[in-house]
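Render this sequence as a predicted structure.
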Amino acid sequence: MKYICIRLLGLFFVLTFMTSPALAQSAEYKAATQKARAAFKAREYLEAAQHFREAFEAESRGALLYNIGICYEKAGQITEAITFYQRFVDAVPGSAKAPLVQRKMAALREQVGSQYRSINVTTTPAGADIYVDDRARGSMGKSPLNVRLLPGTYTIIADLKAHESAEKKVTLGKAADASASLELMRSSEVGTIKFRISERDADVMLDRKRVGRSPIKAPVRVKVGTHEILVMREGFVNWSQSVQVPPGQLVEVDVQLTTEEDQLQMESEASSGNLWPWVLTGSGVAVAAGGIFTGSMAKTLHDGLTDKSQNQEPIAASDIDTGNSLVLITNVLYGVGGAMIAGGVTWMVLDSMGIGRSESLGAAFVPTPDGGALVQVGGQF
């Protein structure tokens, strides 16, 4: 009998709330409430609840929360009904009708048992709209807020104007309450990172926090500043990099993972490519040093022949031939050594600039009309 009285009292409340006058109603609010009343009269209670929720989104009036609750109750969705009755009490705690609604909730809870637990939701800064699982279900109120739910895992969503939305998963056990604290960042202090990763199923870490496994399809919103990125996958070399994120801008991070074998091969090729220029340059220095030695011999012989000439001493033809040979050898050694040094230095410069070359080098002696010879050094780099 008591339960029947409460239901009749609830029907009185909903009729009172439905017919209460409103000042400066928005067009969206008015259209939604008209649809809700029509659906309620047609006993389409779930449809009526949805329209009342649309009205609440247009104008957050506490009476609408009760209307939504009674629609869910009549549709047989008791847990949803209790949720919105509780929201009504939280939204209008000083209402003279609050004690009666509390008794109504107590009667409904006897049907589902004392299974409900609380999630204490706080945000920094406070005053954010709080949603559970889906914004389409409507705001539960503004933070700080205590939300009563059945045990399970829920996604708490917080929205605040000029701030980035925040989400947090919370598991509510059967034996204890839970809490959720969310930090909201100002939109002006946030940038975006977009990941492009060469391998699938790689773990992506951002500032030592796991983002997920590749591919990371959705861009990640982060605070402005420097962030450390680490990408790991079994069988591949860990990839890490510091990324500077400016305010309001998108930073694309291209991650090319390589295996340890690839890295060894690359290092081997790099070492091989850098060795030959040094060999060529060193050989050129050695050849030029030989030219210095033969040049010294030629000068000594020349000085001796000059002294003989001044003293009117006879000069053997073989000494003149030897001197000419030493001069020719010296010129050849200087020419070849200089060319080899120039080629090695050029090779090093091209390697440092990343320009491809085929690593071939050759030298040739070209006769001159006066009986001498020129050295031509050439190759492909």
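Summary. Residues 264-380 form one domain. The longest strand covers residues 117-124.
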